[in-house]
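Consider the tokenized backbone below.
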């Protein structure tokens, strides 16, 4: 009898979760050559082979070694430990060939399935309670899927040819008020979550926050709106930029979002194997925090705090309750948000009419991660779980919080409380933004 056939009913849903996650990983790399997988296409990113090895080692560490007794390691020592080997050095590692890597991943998965088929798991253990550990491992693989897609957008030589499975619907008008903004009335709102079945430690604990009334853009800032900023000298005018932003701009010497290319007086955008005119009705993508902040200042606005963002995405002021997703508590599908990778592109604003928050903000989940003005920090009563290096090690002013997920984010790795973070200079991530304005 195979190990998978011996899996009991209580574990089977988690096995199916891990199986689906691995199938997506293998789909994304299925058209890549050995050279493409081994090459470091940008010093900001790992060779794809390293990501694959890290995915497998992380799964074996947490599902084979750390489910009994005290946690042995938080990252497996050796070649795939991200703290021992920074991204810029990973192309120097003796990475195996793709077939050896696939064999290693398959062997690791078989060992996990055999463990799950034979072990008497202690479901009262905090790691296993409500299936948290399985969802953590799956989410980890989902997040590396998105990282791999960032790498492949930067791919040198022959462009990556994505296995596109669907196209985005056409856009449609999105209602709004006052300069394309909607009003949040303020008051006490619930931020974060008490969930322990899938939420990461930095999303907990659930706590009340008092917010002043504010206005927030009904949609993400579009490429067309960002073009207006560019045409009015946005990248050249010092008054739009913070001190740190201006220093970055002088060093980066950019005049447009990443992957935009001049085409006479117009602009084109390179997206994997396609080069097309910039679509003015799509959310602008691949801008860093400093660019978002400069645009907001040019527009007479500001970036929202992450509390404002979460309130606008989740809080129903009439019912006085929060939603897990902008449209409600039902999990994402291909009908209500541009998520899960297979469009391989942003979509026109309004393409997913169900993707509306209680106050009328469109697209707060999917398409692009949205920069907020908040530094990454723990919530009141924060407790590191299951290891400090996932969140706590990154707390501080060096990182800004992003919210909402992108088209490259898997369904299981996004919700209104999910907090992403990165350096304010990063542009390879699938990042955009929307603006806010204080009331009055």
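A designed sequence for it:
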């Amino acid at each position: 009898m195979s190990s998978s056939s011996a899996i009991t009913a209580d574990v089977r849903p988690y096995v199916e979760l891990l199986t689906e996650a691995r199938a997506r990983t293998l789909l994304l790399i299925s058209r890549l050559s050995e050279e493409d997988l081994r090459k470091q296409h940008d010093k900001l990113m790992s060779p794809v082979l390293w990501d694959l090895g890290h995915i497998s080692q992380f799964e074996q560490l947490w599902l084979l070694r750390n489910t009994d007794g005290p946690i042995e390691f938080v990252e497996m020592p050796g070649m795939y430990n991200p703290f021992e080997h920074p991204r810029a050095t990973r192309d120097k590692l003796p990475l195996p060939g793709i077939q050896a890597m696939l064999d290693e991943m398959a062997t690791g998965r078989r060992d996990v399935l055999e463990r799950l088929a034979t072990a008497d798991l202690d479901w009262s253990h905090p790691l296993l309670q409500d299936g948290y550990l399985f969802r953590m491992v799956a989410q980890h693989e989902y997040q590396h899927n998105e990282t791999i897609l960032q790498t492949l957008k930067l791919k040198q030589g022959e462009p990556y040819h994505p296995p596109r499975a669907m196209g985005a619907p056409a856009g449609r008008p999105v209602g709004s008020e006052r300069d394309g903004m909607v009003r949040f009335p303020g008051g006490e709102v619930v931020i974060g979550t008490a969930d322990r079945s899938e939420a990461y430690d930095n999303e907990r604990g659930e706590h009340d926050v008092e917010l002043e009334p504010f206005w927030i853009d009904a949609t993400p800032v579009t490429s067309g709106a960002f073009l207006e900023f560019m045409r009015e000298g946005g990248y050249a005018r010092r008054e739009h930029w913070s001190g740190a932003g201006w220093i970055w701009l002088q060093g980066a010497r950019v005049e447009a979002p990443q992957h935009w290319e001049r085409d006479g007086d117009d602009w084109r955008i390179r997206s994997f194997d396609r080069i097309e005119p910039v679509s003015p009705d799509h959310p602008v993508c691949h801008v860093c925090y400093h660019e978002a902040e400069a645009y907001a200042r040019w527009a007479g606005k500001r970036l929202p705090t992450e509390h404002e963002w979460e309130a606008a995405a989740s809080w129903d002021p009439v019912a006085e309750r929060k939603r897990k997703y902008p449209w409600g508590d039902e999990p994402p599908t291909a009908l209500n948000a541009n998520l899960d990778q297979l469009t391989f592109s942003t979509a026109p604003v309004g393409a997913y009419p169900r993707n509306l928050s209680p106050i009328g903000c469109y697209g707060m989940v999917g398409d692009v991660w949205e920069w907020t003005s908040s530094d990454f920090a723990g919530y009141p009563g924060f407790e590191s779980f299951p290891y400090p290096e996932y969140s706590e090690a990154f707390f501080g002013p060096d990182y800004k919080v992003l919210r909402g997920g992108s088209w490259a984010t898997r369904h299981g790795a996004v919700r209104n409380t999910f907090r992403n973070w990165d350096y304010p200079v990063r542009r390879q991530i699938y990042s955009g933004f929307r603006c806010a304005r204080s009331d009055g």
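The CA atoms of residues 205 and 382 lie 6 Å apart.
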